């Protein structure tokens, strides 16, 4: 041990020199990071939406782009890159330069169900991206038509048990949240039903109203006018809490299946290795934008719920938990590794 003249430990000169260099390097890197955040964005920012235009996710991205452009002084431009069950657009961002100028606005399928459905996914949702903020959650409404004239969940379950395999439930496609919600319902209630996939919501609603299909989980924007008109009956909502728009409709958990929850969500993410200061700046700007009253009202008309987003560490944990939860649903549906 080296002692100073006062008898205290003294680090060797070479160690002191190394510590000084590390401290100096840290200060330099901190300054560079701060400068990056201060100068960000330095050019237009592209928001990649991995599905086609016109739907709630695309609309959300465009509303957010306008708000961020106004707040941050550079254009935020939405680019739709559909294909491969969102894989094409998601890969675009995974391979982009990690400087915050190419971001992903994705549905939960890009980060959760795709992991289980595809045998070999060409990106890792947890390693290739940094979550910035949740934009909105997507609850669904379980509706029935004249083919299943029931008003309560327990009645529906009893009917399904009396007619095993005879009831049908529709969805907007295999592996979608409405499909997996139906599979969760089957598993938790111990009933047998036949899944009928469709291409789009309009034919689902038409066939439930027409009596060709017994029931379906559908998004709020499409279902609420028909429920209000008495053409569909709302049995329950798929979220943990009741919806302000339908205060008299119980959750499915309240209706007889405790712990049932099947809610989609939309999130904005950056490529891995994007500077933390840029992520922090984006997170703050996105949260502020999504909290504005006009955005909140527009989300309601889209059937979405725009809650305040947690921070990045919590979002990482959230994604990991959602991968496990939806993976279990995919396995229960028998479609694991089907693509």
Tell me what the structure shows.
This protein is of the alpha/beta class and 339 residues long. It has helices at 13-39, 56-72, 87-94, 108-111, 113-117, 153-162, 177-189, 201-210, 220-228, 252-255, 276-290, 293-301, 312-333, and strands at 45-49, 76-80, 102-107, 129-138, 140-144, 168-171, 194-197, 215-219, 233-237, 264-271. Strands 2-1-3-10-4 form a 5-stranded mixed β-sheet, with helices on both faces. It has a 5-stranded mixed β-sheet with strand order 7-6-8-5-9, sandwiched between helices. The termini are far apart. The relative contact order is 0.17. Residues 1-9 have low confidence and may be disordered.
Would you kindly provide a brief summary of this structure?
The chain has 339 residues and is an alpha/beta fold. The chain has 13 helices and ten strands.
The coarse silhouette is globular
Put simply, the count of helices is 13
- Provide mean pLDDT, rounded: 90
Low-pLDDT residue spans: 1-9
Portion in strands: 15-25%
Count of extended strands:
10
String of helices and strands? HEHEHEHHEEHEHEHEHEHEHHH
Cα-atom Rg, whole angstroms? 24 Å
Identify the strand order in the major beta sheet.
2-1-3-10-4
Helical fraction? 40-55%
Counting helices, strands and paired strands, the structural category is alpha/beta
Distance between the termini: 63 Å
Q: How is the biggest beta sheet arranged? A: 5 strands, mixed
């Amino acid at each position: 041990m080296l002692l100073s003249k006062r008898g205290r430990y003294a680090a060797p000169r070479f160690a002191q020199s190394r510590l000084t260099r590390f401290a100096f390097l840290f200060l330099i890197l901190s300054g560079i990071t701060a400068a990056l955040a201060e100068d960000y964005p330095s050019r237009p920012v592209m928001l990649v939406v991995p599905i086609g235009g016109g739907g709630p996710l695309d609309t959300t991205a465009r509303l957010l782009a306008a708000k961020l452009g106004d707040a941050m002084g550079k254009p935020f431009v939405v680019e739709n890159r559909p294909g491969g069950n969102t894989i094409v657009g998601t890969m675009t961002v995974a391979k982009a330069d990690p400087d915050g100028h190419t971001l992903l606005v994705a549905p939960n399928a890009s980060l959760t169900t795709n992991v289980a459905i595809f045998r070999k996914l060409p990106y890792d949702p947890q390693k290739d991206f940094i979550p910035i903020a949740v934009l909105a959650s997507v609850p669904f409404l379980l509706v029935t038509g004249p083919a299943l004239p029931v008003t309560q969940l327990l009645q529906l379950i009893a009917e399904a048990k009396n007619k095993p395999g005879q009831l049908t439930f529709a969805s907007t496609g295999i592996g979608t949240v409405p499909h997996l919600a139906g599979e969760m319902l089957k598993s938790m209630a111990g009933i047998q039903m036949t899944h009928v996939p469709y291409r789009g919501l309009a034919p689902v609603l038409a066939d439930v109203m027409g009596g060709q299909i017994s029931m379906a989980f559908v998004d709020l924007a499409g279902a609420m006018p028909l429920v209000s008109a008495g053409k569909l009956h709302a049995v329950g909502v798929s979220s943990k809490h009741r919806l302000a728009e339908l205060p008299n409709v119980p959750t499915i958990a309240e209706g007889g299946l405790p712990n049932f929850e099947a809610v989609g969500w939309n999130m904005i993410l950056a490529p891995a290795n994007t500077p933390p200061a840029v992520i922090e700046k984006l997170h703050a700007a996105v949260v502020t934008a999504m909290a504005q009253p006009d955005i909140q009202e527009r989300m309601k008309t889209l059937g979405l719920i725009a809650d305040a987003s947690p921070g990045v560490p919590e979002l990482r944990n959230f994604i990991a938990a959602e991968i496990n939860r939806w993976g279990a649903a995919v396995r229960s549906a028998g479609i694991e590794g089907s693509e």
